[in-house]
Amino acid sequence: MVQVGYVLSGLIAVAILFLGSRFWLAPATASAAFGIADSPPPSIGLTAWLSVKGTRDIAAGLFVLLLMANGSPRLLGEFMLVASLIAFGDMATVLRSGGSRGAALGIHGLTGLVIVATGACLILGAN
């Protein structure tokens, strides 16, 4: 079970790093794919805010890799459970903004559930 948790953690880390990088390199594309309704057109201010989000995503992906290298499945699992709140918060933000229900549940909600399952695999497997 721990190996499954580590594989999923690695995939999640790579995905988060990709998404964070996309907010830096192609902010308009990344913003459009996020699911928030009536997102404003790209501007200097919006691009700066999207870069802030990208930086935080990149840091979150690096945290996962750091904890994977640490060799403590329980600590990694606990981190993943807490980190799932980011995906669920994104889901709530998309829903609250009148964005696509499919994007909110299918992208952000499903991601949150996968992160919870990953954390559970790591925690239960560590005992």
TrEMBL record:
The keyword Transmembrane applies. InterPro entries: DUF4267. The lineage of its organism: Bacteria, Pseudomonadati, Pseudomonadota, Alphaproteobacteria, Hyphomicrobiales. Keywords: Membrane, Transmembrane, Transmembrane helix. The keyword Membrane applies. The chain crosses the membrane at residues 48-68, 75-95, 107-126. This is Uncharacterized protein DUF4267.
